[in-house]
Fold each of these.
Amino acid sequence: MVTATISPQYTVKIPANLRSQLRVGQRMAVSMDAQGRLVLTPIEQARVVLDETFGAWAGRKDIPKSGIKYMDKIRRGHRGKRLGKIRGK
């Protein structure tokens, strides 16, 4: 494991042994996983994954075009089931 320090400007110096895998100016998505590890993902890598799955659900009649409406519908169903248990049904 290599360590790095976060500067007062919240920058992190990439250790020398990892630099060969990165390009200067490369755009990265930055996130933190459940264990608190900082995760850098090249934007182009994320775009490739999105492009591969684009349209996978297109044309489905059982799923509304709006994902928000679909999730609201699912949540309403779960709430209804939960309410039935609470009311003793």
Amino acid sequence: MKSHKTDEFDRNYIELYAAIYKQAVADDIREVRRQVYKVLSLRRINEREIHRYLDRMEKEIEVQVQQGVYEEAQNYGPGTKRIQTKHINSLVSRLVDEYIWG
């Protein structure tokens, strides 16, 4: 039989894990948006147009980042940063290509 203290510890651990996940998602979304903005700016796309595109793609970016962060968490270890970079770069490339080629 689990003690009350163990249940509280488990609940705290779950809350901590959820907070770390949410922060990782927010950080990666910010990074994806920053990189897409940078690439499109270098292609001389109008700033307002880039912001409109990123706003329109916001939900898709969020879902893709959430999936990436989940995979990173499942495979946590020495290669986690590499997995994160791969997901971000892949998403940025796809978003840029989609903007340019439709």
